[in-house]
Amino acid sequence: MEIREGIFGEVNGQEVKIFTLINGSGMELSCINYGCTITKVLVPDQNGKVENVVLGFDSIEEYINHSPFFGCVVGRVAGRIANSQFELDGITYDLPNNEGVNHLHGGDHGFDKVIWDAKVEKGADELKVIFTHKSSDGTAGYPGNVTVSITYTLNNKNELDIFYHATTDKKTLINLTNHSYFNLSGDLKRDILEHELTLKSDHFLKLSDSLLPTGELEAVDGTAFDFRDGRELKDGVQSDHQQNKLVGGGYDHPLVLSTNREEEICLIDHQAGRKLIVETDEPSVVLYTSNMMADDFEVRGVTARKYLGVCLETQHQPDAIHHPTFPSILLDKDEEYRTSTKYRFSVM
């Protein structure tokens, strides 16, 4: 097992570092301390050919100019917050609106734009990169001085474990996720419409016209949102369901997980023979099939387009602060925010 470190670029006079973790089973993970961004995940296909299975760039300038949150950690709060404001203990907090009147993924200067402190740890059976950041009270309108750490751990079982931890000195909101776009075909040879997804979920959240949860749970039965027995992602693109049409054809929806830590999410590309199992302690996953990806930039020589990648954003439900029936995203000063998600790569 090996860890390599280098310089990826520079942002406002600060160096951006890149870390490459190489295990003994043919897997490599590359990440930078700008947004804790995963730039590459190299894994073998069924014939042993090692290729990249996430969308990303080779320069910091491309991340700054073009990235639709490729591979980064988003926060303080993942997803949309209605009308860019919320109330805590009688105080109204105003957030920057970066998607119409709403606040998305922590705003234009969220965790994805931060240069994090980073250190590496090498063990006998695993490699780690530990990113840390202190977010000051009032940053992007959020209360509390928040200390955050994100740990990426790679082992010899071709498993990537992402562990999130945060503390605060004042009640605040926290809901973090990694925003990687997966494409198991390898090096973007095909789009993800023929990827097969199996997902243990009986309900999804209905969205409003502004793509915010209405608070209503919809049963997946008889819809393109029923992944319990596996289905190809193109089913959502071809669906006449109003919710699939609403997001531009496909998915951009939170699905409520019916179980945890039991191979609850499985993504397969049958042609390459690659399989990704995702296990988490989070209550939901936002499934996004890049329906809104622009086509005015390139991703490592491939023109960006709709359906080039699929996001599996494990998290609490979006806009939870405005829905008391959703699991809470409040973090108080005497509490710790702790959550983790594991990604296991294998072949058929």
TrEMBL record:
Reactions accelerated catalytically: alpha-D-glucose = beta-D-glucose
The protein's annotated pathway: Carbohydrate metabolism; hexose metabolism
Active-site residue numbers: H179, E313
Coiled coil location: none
Pfam family, one: Aldose_epim
Enzyme class at the top of the EC tree: isomerase
Keyword terms: Carbohydrate metabolism, Isomerase
Residues that hold beta-D-galactose according to the record: H179, S180, Y181, D252
Assigned EC number: 5.1.3.3
Protein name, as recorded: Aldose 1-epimerase
